[in-house]
Structure formats: C-alpha cells, structure tokens
C-alpha cells in the first residue's frame, strides 16, 4: 500500500513537470535566440513582443506585459494564407477608459482606413492591417503604468482577438 502511494506520487509529479516545465523552457529559448541573431540596439530592451495571428482568427497572446518607461517593439505576424481582405489582422492598443466593443463597432466601418477610425483619440498605437504570410513591426514608448485593452479591429474579429496590455 505504501509503495502504491509512492508510485502514484511519482506519476503525478512527472506529469506536472512535463506539462509546466516544458513551455517555460521553450519560451526562454526563443527569447535568447532572438537576442543573439539580431544586432540592432532594440535588442537590449526586454519589451520585445512577438504577437502571432492566423487564419483561425486568433492571437497567440491574451496578455502582454511590458515594463514602463521603455521602448516597446511589437512584431505582428500572420501565419495564415488568407488575404487581408478576408482574414486581415492588426494590433490596436486602446487608451484607458475606451469601451472595446463601441470602438470595434465604429472601427468596422472604417474600411478605407484599414479599420482605424480617422481622427480617433482612442488609439495609442496600431500596426497596419496584414494578411497571411505578412509581418508588421512597430515601435513605441510604453504608456503609463496600468492595464490597457488591445484588439484586432477587422470586422467581427474583436470577440476572439483581444487581450490585456499591462504596463508594469
Ligand atoms: Cu483580425
């Protein structure tokens, strides 16, 4: 009985390791590799974000955390195959207090401006609209400490493609 308990404990423990540990290691490895292969000055900042989107209308990140008072480099990738007219994606960072659904509703009508309302004061920064296989990189100063919403403003996408941008 005692041995059985011991065996069960080992199984549970190794399951925990294979689930939790693996992903952490992978992330660290990818970050290190980016640092080594790129030589520009921006590498020194820890605010280097790679946001991946696809044909399934999804971002790989639901939460982005950056340090205040530093430059942020955000790379938006679209790993799908569909054209931007059908499955276009962007990254739009909203000012605090902006209602995400109201913004997305207005943005959906701004087709001629890649779904960014003209003369808006509710957008801190945004990428261009990209389609499958494309990438866009933007650089900006991290806004003041706090939590912000981000979304893709292509019509109908914000329901799945949104998240929190947290400045610490
Ligand atoms: Cu989208």
Structure description:
- This protein has 168 residues and is α/β, with parallel strands linked by helices.
- It has 2 domains: 1-37; 43-167, Cupredoxins -  blue copper proteins (Immunoglobulin-like, Sandwich).
- Helix content is 29%, strand content 26%.
- It has 3 helices and 8 strands.
- The strands form 2 sheets. Strands 2-8-7-4-5 form a 5-stranded mixed β-sheet, with no helix packed on it.
- The longest helix has 36 residues, at 2-37.
- The radius of gyration is 20 Å and the shape is globular.
- The N and C termini lie far apart (50 Å).
- The model is unreliable at 7-45 (pLDDT under 50).
- Copper (II) ion is lined by residues 89, 152, 154, 157, 161.
- It comes from Leptobacterium flavescens.
- Residues 52-168 form the Blue (type 1) copper domain.
- Keywords: Copper, Electron transport, Metal-binding, Transport.
Concise summary:
InterPro entries: Azurin (IPR014068), BlueCu_1 (IPR000923), BlueCu_1_BS (IPR028871), Cu-binding_ET (IPR050845), Cupredoxin (IPR008972). This protein has helices at residues 2-37, 84-87, 100-107; strands spanning 48-53, 63-66, 71-78, 92-94, 123-126, 135-141, 146-151, 162-167.
